[in-house]
From TrEMBL:
<dbReference type="InterPro" id="IPR006139">
    <property type="entry name" value="D-isomer_2_OHA_DH_cat_dom"/>
</dbReference>
<dbReference type="InterPro" id="IPR006140">
    <property type="entry name" value="D-isomer_DH_NAD-bd"/>
</dbReference>
<dbReference type="InterPro" id="IPR029753">
    <property type="entry name" value="D-isomer_DH_CS"/>
</dbReference>
<comment type="similarity">
    <text>Belongs to the D-isomer specific 2-hydroxyacid dehydrogenase family.</text>
</comment>
<keyword id="KW-0520">NAD</keyword>
<keyword id="KW-0560">Oxidoreductase</keyword>
<dbReference type="Pfam" id="PF00389">
    <property type="entry name" value="2-Hacid_dh"/>
</dbReference>
<dbReference type="InterPro" id="IPR029752">
    <property type="entry name" value="D-isomer_DH_CS1"/>
</dbReference>
<dbReference type="Pfam" id="PF02826">
    <property type="entry name" value="2-Hacid_dh_C"/>
</dbReference>
<dbReference type="InterPro" id="IPR036291">
    <property type="entry name" value="NAD(P)-bd_dom_sf"/>
</dbReference>
<dbReference type="InterPro" id="IPR058205">
    <property type="entry name" value="D-LDH-like"/>
</dbReference>
<feature type="domain" description="D-isomer specific 2-hydroxyacid dehydrogenase catalytic">
    <location>
        <begin position="4"/>
        <end position="322"/>
    </location>
</feature>
<protein>
    <submittedName>
        <fullName>2-hydroxyacid dehydrogenase</fullName>
    </submittedName>
</protein>
<feature type="domain" description="D-isomer specific 2-hydroxyacid dehydrogenase NAD-binding">
    <location>
        <begin position="110"/>
        <end position="298"/>
    </location>
</feature>
Length: 322
């Protein structure tokens, strides 16, 4: 099998090469993302290996079919960037990595919560300047407070369990609850408006769909406790960012921690060491001392990268065997 790997970062190459030791596929790495401009690079390959920001629309898929590409191997869980029905019509199979490491994202969610609460990022910056003052660094005990988990799937459940480890009262909302898992974890499910009303920390773990787009709008923010903390490690467009900015400005929303951003597009996937990216809304968010933004790194652990690489190549191997 000859595989064209698009949007390659140095870590993709490292982990895929290691996982490929048992298969010895020909992996041709391209730094560019797969889209209409770069699609010709796929010629001469049996499969393309892509990530969330490669675009597999009609022109690209038609070129794939013409070039003899028979498999799209996604090295991620989401597949909203692939026209699945057209791929099916063209006889191109699509494989993905459904669950590489819920713990990686759950643990990162806790990192955002703890950092925002105890302000270790600010303390570190101060101490580098020789300033050991505690001014403005006051936090709160999480023990005994209420955490609201929106979406109790793989990552939501793993996050809920970590929050329980802090002796928090964990409540959750999920329209399609896995009753057995929820009961086993001892989590109370509540209607969404109740969750907003009672939670001191709200963390989002549901997918981005038509019905969850901007689910955190002005009204949802208004119904949250004054001073509540909102965390999003799922998809940026779950939050109406302008409404969140207004709520921060009105000092109603107490803290905002986001690993994903509404307009993230290419932004969070570029290598910032090569390019400084200016974004007005990000700059606006950064002007609030109680906001923490990171660049979609929740998944970024050694274990998750190993699982992504191994599952991607197992998918390709299984395809080759059929
Ligand atoms: P999952 O499919 O296991 O769980 C999603 C849960 O959300 C399901 O239980 C589903 O019933 C629930 N849900 C659906 N609609 C809902 C709604 N309207 N309100 C509340 N809950 C709803 O998915 P997962 O693996 O736990 O991933 C969750 C999210 O994390 C995904 O959106 C994914 O994009 C994101 N993610 C982020 C990173 C990162 O690096 N930051 C990495 C991986 C995944």
């Amino acid at each position: 099998m000859k595989i064209a790997v698009f949007g390659t970062k140095p870590y993709d190459r490292e982990y895929l090469n290691r996982a490929n030791q048992q298969y010895a596929f020909q992996l041709d790495y391209f730094k560019v993302r797969l889209n209409e401009e770069t699609r010709e690079l796929a010629r001469g390959h049996d499969a393309v290996c892509v990530f969330v920001n490669d675009i597999l629309n009609q022109p690209v898929l038609e070129t794939m079919a013409d070039a003899g590409v028979r498999l799209i191997a996604l090295r991620c869980a989401g597949f909203n960037n692939v026209d699945l029905s057209l791929a099916d019509k063209l006889g191109i199979k699509v494989a993905r990595v459904p669950a590489y490491s819920p713990e990686a994202v759950a643990e990162y969610t806790l990192a955002l919560i703890l950092t925002l609460n105890r302000k270790t990022h600010k303390a570190w910056n101060r101490i580098r300047e020789g300033n050991f003052s505690l001014n403005g660094l006051l936090g709160f005990n999480m023990t005994g407070k209420t955490a609201g988990v929106v979406g109790l799937g793989r990552i939501g459940l793993a996050t809920a369990k970590l929050l329980q480890g802090f002796d928090m009262n964990v409540i959750a909302y999920d329209p399609f609850p896995d009753e057995v898992a929820i009961k086993a974890a001892g989590i109370k499910t509540v209607p969404l408006h109740e969750l907003y009303h009672h939670a001191d920390i709200i963390t989002l773990h549901c997918p981005l769909t038509d019905s969850t787009f901007h689910m955190i709008d002005a009204e949802a923010l208004e119904s949250m406790k004054p001073g509540a903390m909102l965390i999003n490690t799922s998809r940026g467009a779950l939050i109406d960012t302008q409404a969140a900015i207004r709520s921060l400005k009105a000092e109603h929303l107490g803290y905002l921690g986001i690993d994903v951003y509404e307009q993230e597009g290419d932004l969070f996937f570029e290598d910032l060491s090569e390019q400084i990216i200016q974004d007005d809304i990000i700059q606006r968010l950064q002007s609030f001392p109680n906001v923490l933004i990171t660049g979609h790194q929740g998944f970024f652990t050694r274990e998750a990268l190993t699982a992504i690489a191994e599952t991607t190549l197992t998918n390709i191997h299984e395809f080759a065997e059929t």
